[in-house]
Amino acid sequence: MRIGIAGLGTVGGGTVRLLQGKADLLAARAGRRVEVVAASARDPGRERGLDLGGVRFERDALALAAAPDIDAVVELIGGAGGVALDLVRAALESGKAVVTANKAMLALHGGGLALLAERQGVPLLFEAAVAGGIPIVKSLREGLAANRVRRVYGILNGTCNYILTQMRETGRDFAEVLAEAQGLGYAEADPSTDVDGIDAAHKLALLAAIAFGGLPSFEGIHVEGIRRVSAQDIAYADALGYRIKLLGVARRTEAGVEQRLHPCMVRKDAAIAQVEGVFNGIVVEGDEAGEVVHEGRGAGAGPTASAVVADLIDIARGRWGPVFGVPAAGLEPLRPSPLQDHAGRHYVRLMVQDRPGVLAEIAAAFRDHDVSIESLLQQGRDPGRTVAIVLITHEAAERAMRGALAQIGRLEAVEEPPCMIRIEAL
Ligand SMILES: NC(=O)c1ccc[n+]([C@@H]2O[C@H](COP(=O)([O-])OP(=O)(O)OC[C@H]3O[C@@H](n4cnc5c(N)ncnc54)[C@H](OP(=O)(O)O)[C@@H]3O)[C@@H](O)[C@H]2O)c1
């Protein structure tokens, strides 16, 4: 099988190295040799530490789609639109198989691309787009195909998980740990796609599409990143028996599919709480298989190339089907279930003046919105100064919580906007 690779960066370079370094093993597993015949990148002169002798260099990535000597195009450029999208469309239109690691493109254009691929009768595979080296796409689409999925949730961004883990272990605040992560190369110079939750939400859109039988609907996801998580909340979470994780959660409800990506408190002894540092973890709750836990490396040359090459082997063997598990022509975008209707327990931290009557005003606001309090913690007394009040609510609807917190935020004695973190029932 002759392939053309567009993009020779972290993933593209790793893929070339893997295909060359394990050529015989992969040929045995694929049933034929998988050979890179052409490649494209932005800068033809860049030293990449790759052996590209015998590999044709195309200045224009789109030439890979048209080349008659290429069977499969591997798109590893990135970006939701632009050259990556043009290339994938052109390759599918000319009847070539496509492998991509591009979650941004699939989260936004996956429905149209799946329709095109299936109309053309060619594979479009994307294992590397979700959680790098963890074969979660295959697991959901194939291994768990007999299940109705109740919920799928996970840690889908290693950078955020690294930052949260470091914050907990060292007691330092977000900004300091982010700066260190940038220095170590774990976070980008512009970290917003990671820390604001966009990257993880792209992956959640793809997982939800496969798990719940719909086209990806990124717009339907409620997204909150980790910038507002403080060292103080991490310490309180620890004292209360929880860890704070940035979770993507997709869950079937009566109204549709709830998709949300935000910091969550999870019980310390839950499997997902043990996923630390740069690792990713995904838990699928199936009605037949029960809870299935996946953990591994979500990024980096080796893990991501491992997933790209697994897709190439499947194509070589003819093992592929509809892009999201069922034919795209019969699918609608997932119907969003409003977050306002979500019910759960909540952690709330309030910074208040320590004076008589404040607690009664806070309790009244919760009562007015029908939210009952499960436990309350006020550490130390400091009359006239600012102190933290931390409480956990019983199960309450998002709508009620927002109403109560808006009322509390207006109280004179409350000195900062209330901090609220949802507790995920696991
Ligand atoms: N890095 C990871 O761990 C990881 C994990 C999972 C998924 N992904 C996904 O994999 C994809 C690639 O990520 P990456 O980290 O490998 O990116 P990267 O290191 O920045 O590499 C991007 C490559 O694309 C090339 N490129 C840019 N514009 C191009 C154009 N117009 N025509 C042809 N080539 C062009 C670049 O060329 P030059 O080298 O000449 O600049 C570079 O080789 C993205 O979709 C990303 O989301 C990455």
Q: In terms of topology, how is this protein built?
A:
Layout: E1 2-6, H1 10-21, H2 23-30, E2 35-40, E3 56-58, H3 62-66, E4 72-75, H4 82-93, E5 97-100, H5 103-120, E6 124-125, H6 136-143, E7 149-155, H7 158-170, H8 174-183, H9 192-195, H10 198-212, E8 222-223, H11 231-240, E9 242-252, E10 257-267, E11 279-286, E12 290-297, H12 301-317, E13 343-353, H13 358-368, E14 373-378, E15 386-393, E16 396-397, H14 398-409, E17 419-423
Parallel strand pairs: 1-2, 1-4, 2-3, 4-5, 5-6, 8-10, 10-17
Antiparallel strand pairs: 7-9, 7-11, 9-10, 11-12, 13-15, 13-16, 13-17, 14-15
The structure holds NADP nicotinamide-adenine-dinucleotide phosphate.
Report on this model:
The chain has 426 residues and is an alpha/beta fold. The protein has three domains: 140 residues, Rossmann fold; 162 residues, Dihydrodipicolinate Reductase, domain 2 (2-Layer Sandwich), CATH 3.30.360.10; 81 residues, Alpha-Beta Plaits (2-Layer Sandwich), CATH 3.30.70.260. The chain is built from 14 helices and 17 strands. Strands 7, 8, 9, 10, 11, 12, 13, 14, 15, 16 and 17 form an eleven-stranded mixed β-sheet that branches. Strands 3-2-1-4-5-6 form a six-stranded parallel β-sheet, sandwiched between helices. A hairpin with a 3-residue loop joins strand 11 and strand 12. The relative contact order is 0.13. The site of NADP nicotinamide-adenine-dinucleotide phosphate (NAP) has 25 residues, from helix 1.
